[in-house]
Design a protein that fits this description.
Layout lengths: L6 H4 L9 H6 L3 H7 L3 H13 L4 H25 L3 H22 L3 H21 L4 H6 L2 H8 L5 H18 L4 H24 L12 H18 L2 H9 L7
Helix pairs in contact: 4-5, 4-10, 5-9, 5-10, 6-7, 6-10, 7-11, 10-11
Length: about 250
């Protein structure tokens, strides 16, 4: 008989953006003791994103260190939660807490808009992976998830998650909002790569799945005003002169 598909067969590599301390606190004492080791390397890796120059190499190194701790904690949570609904509820609660924390911390409206896109896209990814049964999720081991995270198609996703986790840690520590905005911008570019790759495979996921038509229109107009405000008169004239006027 064919084996049921695992969450990794659906969209390998996606992880909710776990707060390590909060995730560990949700585990029974025995399970928590088994994965308590994950906290120190994860936080040490994220601390590097606070002060070191932000480069592709740094994000790659931090993501590489985070893979095993995050996989271990995720696997333990899957085994602890009683249902798929509980998994989805926990992930959604975390997303809301992250949005509230970082929106109050960020000083730039542009950064808050970019954060909303990033968190919305990750939320859609997590919801998509939740089609698997709780039994399959509970059987998934941390080493399998770690291996999946290392696959080429998941590199951009894990680096984006590392950047978002770094931004959230800055908010928790009342760090530099501008550095957090840099990390969010980096996450956005990486998640756009993930979205483009998924579209190429025929899958469309929106970061604003619950948005009404009126909300979409308001958001579009707000983006247009922000772009216009950022352009000088010379910029506008240059763009206007370069406008395509004929297909002949």
């Amino acid at each position: 008989m064919a084996q049921p598909a695992s969450p990794l067969d659906v969209q390998p590599g996606v992880l909710p953006l776990w707060d390590i301390d909060a995730a560990l606190a949700r585990l029974p004492a025995e399970q928590r003791a088994k994965v308590a080791w994950a906290k120190a390397p994860a936080l040490a890796a994220l601390d590097r994103l606070e002060g070191e120059p932000l480069t592709d190499e740094l994000l790659a190194e931090v993501a590489g260190v985070l893979a095993k701790p995050l996989a271990a904690v995720t696997s333990a949570l899957w085994q602890t939660l009683a249902s798929r609904d509980a998994w989805q509820s926990l992930a959604e609660s975390g997303h809301r807490d992250d949005a509230a924390l970082m929106n109050s911390f960020l000083t730039s409206e542009d950064a808050r808009d970019t954060l909303a896109w990033c968190l919305g896209f990750v939320r859609s990814l997590v919801a998509f992976t939740s089609v698997a049964s709780a039994e399959v999720m509970a059987q998934l081991r941390g080493d399998e998830l770690t291996h999946a995270l290392a696959q080429p198609q998941n590199v951009a996703l894990l680096r984006a998650e590392a950047a978002l986790l770094g931004a959230r840690r800055l908010a928790h520590r009342d760090g530099d909002p501008e550095r957090a905005a840099e990390l969010i911008d980096a996450a956005f570019m990486l998640l756009c790569e993930v979205q483009d790759s998924m579209r190429h495979d025929g899958l469309w996921l929106s970061p604003f799945v619950a948005e009404s038509p009126d909300e979409r229109a308001e958001r579009t107009l707000r983006y247009a005003r922000q772009v216009r405000d950022a352009l000088s008169e010379d910029d506008v004239e240059t763009l206007d002169a370069a406008r395509l006027r004929s297909l002949r």
